[in-house]
Specification:
Helix content of chain B: 55-70%
CATH topology of chain B: Helix Hairpins
Oligomer: heterodimer
Radius of gyration of chain A: 41 Å
Structural class of chain B: mainly alpha
Mean pLDDT of chain A: 86
Radius of gyration of chain B: 19 Å
Distance between the termini of chain A: 85 Å
Order of helices and strands of chain B: HHHH
Strand content of chain A: under 5%
CATH class of chain B: Mainly Alpha
Strand order of the largest sheet of chain A: 1-4
Helix content of chain A: over 70%
Number of strands of chain B: 0
Number of strands of chain A: 6
Mean pLDDT of chain B: 86
Distance between the termini of chain B: 42 Å
Strand content of chain B: under 5%
Largest sheet of chain B: none
Shape of chain B: elongated
Number of helices of chain A: 38
Largest sheet of chain A: 2 strands, antiparallel
Low-confidence stretches of chain A: 925-945
Chain lengths: 945, 113
């Protein structure tokens, strides 16, 4: 539990600064420090246990089905990193109190810093690889916010975006790598992954896994060729740089190398990729650092170089090299954090970071100068300072490397070269800033020492550099040993950190580096000129140009597919569907099954021919809309005949009544639309569409035939067997609708009601020009309503309603039911509208159809809820037989109530749609009042031309 | 008969798709209706062709598969609602845009190609 608390403390602490900000900046800073301070205490408290070689675990299930658990571990490596993260975090908190100007929100910075601290602690303490990645992504996101803290500056925003793009892309690679590891190991748990190291290394996808994981680590740790984001992240406030770009974020990458070392290291792949990347980065960073005039730029490139050095040590793969790498992580964090803070102080006091202007600071701020010089000497690797110790170990390991055969001399040579550059840029940092004459044009003059407590963090860090450098065995040794043990396990080497190993080769290399470095710095003028001529390029401009380029390509591809034409989208969708299904059909070994085809019947053939003629006619005549519509209705009638032929009377009835309603509806709409479709498709488009439509049709035909020739066992046996006993009805189709699958039906009538309400909304306030004549220029008949039709319709109405009641009542046991009865009622009412006009009907029938539709859905839902009162689940049906005088025994089922709901919805929805559309003619205005007809709903009769 | 049914469904689909690809709203609605017939028939025959059967318990000796029938019954009603919805959408588009082209404009491509 302690482990979880350690992580949660900064998370809770992130909220505190916002509450205390109003009480003053100092209180805000102290309150922000409370959480990390307790976490630091907890970490130190558990240190003795860890030194004994124990590992603390804390386990909590999170998403066990995904293998993602909140499992934490605290081993030597986590402890060492945890102390760095929290310790330096606290110093940065104190420092930021004085660094930030009163205009900037201190609370925002503290909250982000603590969030970041939480995420970093999560990374180093995760015992689950997926959990580690979750925290990893949080660091990417929070670092984006931190780098872009001054969000009004364009450079800060661009720098933040670049960092996010690079580290985010690396994070994606890492996830892919983790998923592959999980496929081999079967778990994301660290213990299982470490144990399966040999299995992973032997697996055929090991190189892929390695490269993916390394991409994650290298982007985070700014390794070549991903180093470019780090210098641009220097637009962040200096406390952020000191924290993220020295001690924590960039160290997450090398932490990952250390963490995954037991599982992935020890192969040639590892050696070559990691070593050479590290070496290139080290040289690249060291070389460039010398030529940066920006104080923070120099430190940024120096950080890149040192990260390369650490990476290279992990790449060597010898136990001592790993120990040296971990040692250098600690050393680099301490001296680089103090250097960043010193750079921040100088920036703060002089108003610039340009080393061509800042000179001779020794006179103005001797205290700061002394501290910065000690830290810079540690960076150069001067004896009696911590940087010297780990650099000696590095030289020594570079000398002992034999993996490269006859080229082994390359490593010591390049290592010395990097050391030489690092001495040169350290010398520049010291000489250029603190000596070298007088300052030139400082924005703030004269500079003086910063507030007392702003220097305290620097003092503490520099003190650590000295302590570790002079008495390493009393200070850092146990932490280092515990951390190395966690990485190396049984391979733990016997080693001894000492300041004096005698006059050996590594020491000579150090001397060469120092002498050469100083010499190189003294020749700087010529070198600077050379660098200016050769190597001036702006990574940000290149990066932005590439971003713009990819945006342009994306735009181009989008334009190809998404050209704002629905017609094009439709063609693309259909083409995709045809291609996908065609591909699947192509791959089938045998399309048709063993069932023999039954014999052709002459009557069916005739009907089919009529249907086909009707369908093709609809297409061929579709420019003449009314004719096409009439042919379409022929198709619909034949379809209902097909239902009759194949034993589906319910479907036939439904199809027939829907057909009537649909055709009336289409005619009604056609009145407002052009009567003719212009012939605007060119030959190319028509042939394209014929190919698409033909392919779709042939595909459907093949699938149908394939399906019909396959043997078939239905799940319907259950419904047939239980319809009478369970649902109390003999008509299985109806019982399925209102009982077995009642919930589906409830959903469907809801959709119906929603569609009707949607239509109502769309018709609301709709004004369409009333046409005075049909497509061929003939005037619409002025005779509003033929009297014979009106009289007949009125006679028919009660009969039709009776039929619909009959159909409804018999529905449970014979063909019929709520859907069909509702449609029949709808047709009967529509006939009245057609025959007598909207106004006439409105006077007599004052229903608001939308209420009817909605109350239908409500009745059905309430019927379902009713079963709750009897202690049954939603929509449980009940039925019983009752003896009613005169009528006899009647069966009443609760499903009938449900069916009433269906009936009401269907009537309401149908009428809502048709009646409102019919009323449109009254509300629409006419473009030419003189030629328009009387405003009755006579448009309904325009079906007869 | 299976072959005939497959042909019918193929023709309905082809005609429906062809009309769906037109540029004006009304033919598209016609196409949608044709496609609906095809799809409904397809679902219906997935219960196999069973002439002379019944779905009423106690009537006849052979039973047809009631599940596709129940599916298609609701499909018919829902597709009516959808047809109506699209139709009114077309009317609204005509009122708002002044023409009945699906893209709300007579595209240059249509005229030229």
């Amino acid at each position: 539990m302690t482990l979880l608390i350690i992580i949660l403390l900064p998370l809770i602490g992130a909220a505190i600064p916002f509450m205390t900000e109003r009480m003053g900046r100092t209180i805000c800073a102290y309150s922000a420090a409370i959480g990390p301070l307790i976490a630091l205490g907890l970490l130190i408290g558990s240190a003795p246990t860890i030194f004994n070689g124990t590992i603390l675990y804390s386990q909590l299930s999170w998403l066990p089905s995904l293998g993602l658990n909140l499992n934490l571990r605290l081993d030597g490596l986590s402890l060492m990193f945890g102390l760095l993260i929290v310790g330096i975090g606290l110093l940065v908190t104190l420092y930021a109190r004085y660094y930030l100007s009163p205009r900037d929100s201190l609370a925002k910075l503290y909250a982000l810093l603590q969030l970041f601290m939480m995420a970093m602690l999560g990374i180093v303490m995760s015992d689950n690889l997926m959990l580690l990645i979750v925290f990893w992504e949080i660091t990417s996101l929070v670092s984006f916010l931190l780098i872009g803290y001054w969000s009004n500056q364009s450079d800060a925003r661009k720098g933040a975006r670049m960092a996010l793009a690079v580290t985010g892309a690396g994070g994606l690679c890492l996830i892919a790598g983790a998923l592959l590891i999980e496929r081999i190991v079967g778990s994301f748990e660290m213990g299982a992954i470490f144990a399966a190291g040999d299995e992973i290394r032997a697996h055929s996808s090991y190189p892929v896994i390695l490269i993916l994981v390394l991409l994650g680590a290298f982007t985070k740790s700014a390794q070549f060729p991903f180093q470019f984001w780090l210098p641009h992240a220097m637009n962040a406030p200096t406390p952020v740089s000191a924290y993220l770009h020295s001690a924590t974020m960039v160290k997450a990458g090398v932490f990952l190398l250390a963490r995954m070392y037991p599982a992935l290291a020890g192969t040639d792949w590892w050696f070559y990729i990691v070593t050479f990347t590290g070496m290139t980065t080290m040289l690249f960073g060291a070389y460039n650092a010398l030529f940066k005039h920006d104080l923070k730029g120099l430190l940024a490139y120096s950080t890149i170089s040192h990260l390369g050095l650490i990476t290279m040590l992990f790449g060597f793969g010898t136990p001592l090299a790993v120990a040296a790498g971990i040692f250098h992580i600690i050393n680099h964090a301490t001296f680089k954090a103090s250097l960043f803070m010193a750079a921040g102080i100088i920036d703060h006091e002089t108003g610039t970071r340009d080393m061509r202007k800042i000179n001779g600071m020794w006179k103005y701020m001797p205290h700061t100068a002394l501290l910065a010089m000690v830290a810079a000497l540690a960076m150069a690797g001067v004896p009696l300072l911590n940087g010297f110790l780990s650099k000696e170990m590095f030289f020594s390991e570079a000398l002992h490397l034999e993996s490269m055969g006859m080229f082994s001399w390359v490593f010591p040579l390049l290592a010395t070269l990097a050391g030489l550059f690092s001495v040169a840029y350290s010398a520049r940092f010291i000489h250029d800033v603190f000596f070298n004459g007088e300052p030139i044009d400082l924005p703030k003059f004269p500079p003086h020492e910063p507030p007392r407590y702003m220097i305290v963090p620097v003092e503490i860090l520099v003190g650590l550099c000295l302590l570790v450098g002079i008495v390493p065995n009393l200070t850092v040794a146990p932490f280092l040993e515990a951390a190395s043990l966690a990485v190396l396990g049984e391979q733990m080497p016997e080693y001894h950190i000492a300041i004096w190993h005698g006059l050996n080769l590594p020491l000579i290399m150090s001397f060469i580096a120092m002498a050469g470095g100083v010499l190189m710095y003294s020749q700087r003028k010529g070198l600077f000129a050379f660098y200016e001529r050769k190597y001036r390029h702006d990574e940000k401009a290149v990066f932005e140009a590439r971003v713009q380029f990819s945006v342009r390509i994306a735009q181009h591809i989008t334009d190809l597919v998404q050209n704002n034409s629905l017609q094009r989208y439709m063609a693309l969708l259909i083409a995709t569907a045809v291609a996908a299904i065609g591909y699947a059909l192509w791959g089938m070994p045998q399309l048709f099954g063993p069932i023999a085809i039954t014999e052709l019947e002459p009557v069916s053939l005739l009907c089919a021919v009529i249907l086909i003629v009707g369908a093709l006619g609809t297409v061929l005549l579709h420019h003449n809309r009314l004719a096409a519509l009439l042919l379409l209705s022929v198709v619909g009638l034949i379809v209902s005949l097909i239902f009759v032929r194949y034993s589906a009377p319910d479907l036939a009835l439904t199809q027939l009544s829907v057909e009537v309603v649909t055709i009336v509806l289409l005619m009604l709409a056609l009145y407002f639309l052009p009567q003719l479709t212009p012939n605007e498709s060119g030959g190319k488009r028509v042939s394209r569409d014929i190919v698409l439509a033909g392919a779709a049709g042939i595909g459907m035909g093949l699938i149908t035939l394939a399906m019909l020739t396959q043997p078939f066992t239905s799940i319907s046996e259950y419904y047939l067997a239980n319809s009478v006993s369970g649902g109390g009805g003999a008509n299985v189709v109806n019982v399925i609708l209102v009982d077995f699958r009642g919930f589906d039906t409830l959903g469907e009538i809801t959709v119906l009601a929603i569609a009707a309400v949607g239509i109502y909304a769309m018709l609301n306030g709709l004004h369409l020009p009333l046409p005075g004549a049909d497509g061929e220029g003939r005037r619409w008949d002025k005779e509003p309503h033929p009297p014979i039709l009106a009289v007949m319709a009125r006679i028919l109405l009660p009969l039709a309603l009776l039929v619909s009641v009959f159909i409804f009542l018999r529905g449970h046991n014979a063909p019929g039911g709520g859907f069909i009865a509702g449609l029949v009622t709808g047709v009967a009412l529509i006939l009245q509208y057609v025959a007598s006009g909207t106004g006439w009907m409105q006077e007599r029938l004052r229903w608001r159809y939308r209420r009817v539709a909605v109350s239908g859905v409500l009745i059905a839902a309430l019927t379902g809820i009713g079963s709750w009162f009897f202690g049954y689940p939603f929509l449980t049906s009940a039925f019983g037989h009752f003896n009613i005088p005169l009528i006899g025994e009647v069966e009443i089922a609760s499903a009938m109530m449900f069916d009433i709901g269906v009936y009401t919805t269907v009537v309401g929805a149908t009428m809502l749609i048709l009646a409102h559309l019919g009323r449109l003619a009254q509300t629409s205005h006419s473009p030419r009042p003189a030629t328009s007809m009387p405003y009755r709903s006579n448009e309904l009769t325009k079906g007869e031309p | 008969m299976e072959l005939l049914m497959a042909t019918v469904i193929a023709v309905l689909t082809s005609c429906g798709v062809y009309l769906l690809l037109r540029g004006r709203t009304f033919p598209i609605i016609l196409g949608l209706t044709l496609l609906t017939y095809g799809v409904n028939l397809f679902i219906f025959v997935s219960g196999r062709l069973s002439p002379g059967s019944s779905t009423i318990i106690g009537v006849g000796e052979q039973y047809a598969d009631p599940i596709p029938q129940a599916l298609v019954l609701t499909a018919i009603v829902i597709s009516f609602a959808m047809t109506a919805f699209v139709l009114v959408l077309a009317l609204r588009a005509r009122a708002e845009l002044g023409n009945d082209h699906v893209d709300g404009r007579i595209s240059v491509e249509d005229v030229n190609s």
